[in-house]
Amino acid sequence: MKKLVKGKNQNHVFGQPRPAANGETAIHRSPPRNTQFRDLPPPTGQSPFRLDIKDIVSKATYDAMVRSESVTFHLNGDMGGIQYAVPQELVASGMEGDFSASAKDGQPPAFLYITGDCVYFNGQVAEYYKQFYQPYEFYLAPIFAIPGNHDGENLDGDSTLDGFLRNFCAPSAIKMPESGESQRTAMVQPNVYWTLLTPQVNIVGLYSNVPAGGDIRSPQKDWLVNELTTLPPDVPLFVALHHPVYSADNHHSGSTYMKDLLEQAAHEAGRHPDAVLAGHVHNYQRLTRIQSDGSKVPYLVTGAGGYHNLHQIMKVDGQRMITPATFSDQTGDPVTLEAYSDDHHGFLRLQVSRGLMTGRYFEVPRPQEPYSKGSHLVDYFEFDCQQKAYLPNTL
After folding, report:
1. Which of 133, 166, 206, 252 is the most exposed place for a label (fewest CB within 10 A)?
2. What is the phi/psi pair of residue 101, to 5°?
3. How many domains, in total, are found in the chain?
């Protein structure tokens, strides 16, 4: 055996370059695979893995959605406050307060949809009370989710996604031991990738696994094509996944892998999602891609839900980026960063009514600021899912 001389012939590993280290601002890239793909657990429900909101909420809530032709919900990601709980608690408090505030705009949220990384760092069952059940003890609506890389990258001896399956894909609405003093019961999603059906919008949720940039394989890819093909064309369709397709941040960037997968699936199905929802990057971004036919697709990054470290947007000549900022995608499609928030945690409220998506993103106070400051609206938009275009901002 060759003797290893200290300080020589060793494969040292140091830091990795930031996405903009070469002076260019790329909004998606293909990072090296630093972790292995984890095989998916068996489904807990029946194919095609759809869950109807009417089977979860009260009859009065569902009838109100149908009668008003509108559904409102919160969207957020990267929630767990494992090292410092205050940001997550402030976001949870902000969403609680939004129930009464949103009623003035139409109706309170019917649910919260989490775009992954529910529990840091490894989705442990033992962390679910501190990072999920306790912070949302007073959240008045159901909570749905797709897994993120941290939910699936479990510790040795644990089965991948065990905590997620127990608490989001339970066989029935039972109270789990890890829920502690919370009265919230486990959710009954039929699979780690699944579709939420509502009268006004269908949300196709993907699990993009644990490797950097995400990794989606068959049969999940085939299932995505089938959902894009068979879901009603007259109801807006959103796709949610953890790893974003586009991101102008200086920590992760967007994923070329996810861009290629989504575009190939849309091509095979002959239908593109009306909006793409993601997390993973710890900030808020609203980006818009202009398709070859001139239509627009919003790409929303909502990853400032509670994890303590936020990710900054790339700077231009050392200065904060001014929106709107248009990038040239590697394939030539123009993508515009319309708005962002990278120095506060926050939450997004979406309302879909008769094909019109209205979004309001709220920042919550920093931990060192007076909590009485409350939530602050920083982005407002209206997008016509039928015309594939924004309406003029009349707020």
Report:
1. 166
2. -65, -40
3. 1
Bridge-based pairing of strands 194-197 and 202-205 is antiparallel
Q: What are phi and psi of 284, to 5 degrees?
A: -115, 135
Task: Give me the numbers of helices (H) and strands (E) for the chain, helices first please.
Answer: 7, 18
Contact 107, 96 (CB under 8 A): no
Amino acid of residue 261: L
Phi, psi of 349 (to 5 degrees): -110, 125
- Tell whether 92 is covered by a domain: yes
Whether residue 171 contacts residue 44, with contact meaning beta carbons closer than 8 Å, is answered with yes
Query: Is residue 3 one of the residues assigned to a domain?
Result: no
| pLDDT, tens digit (0-9, with 9 covering 90-100), for 287-324 | 999 998 999 999 999 999 999 999 999 998 889 999 99
Kindly state the tokens that stand for 14: 């140091």
Which range of residues forms the domain containing residue 370?
A: 41-390
pLDDT at 48 over 90: yes
Read off the tokens for 270: 């002959």
> Per-residue pLDDT for 82 more than 90?
no
Q: First vs last Cα of the chain: how many Å apart?
A: 73
**pLDDT value at position 233?**
97
What span, in angstroms and rounded, lies between the C-alpha atoms of 278 and 245? 8
Cβ atoms < 10 Å from Cβ of 164: 26
Q: What are phi and psi of 228, to 5 degrees?
A: -65, -30
φ, ψ for residue 382 (rounded to 5)? -130, 130
CATH code where residue 333 lies: 3.60.21.10
Percent of the chain residues past pLDDT 90, beyond the cut: 83
Q: Is residue 20 one of the residues assigned to a domain?
A: no
SS3 23: coil
CA distance 144 to 127: 18
Q: Are 141 and 112 in contact (CB under 8 A)?
A: yes
Does 32 map to a domain? no
Whether the CB-CB separation of 211 and 153 falls below 8 Å is answered with no
Give burial (CB, 10 Å; 0-12/13-18/19+) of 240. Answer: buried
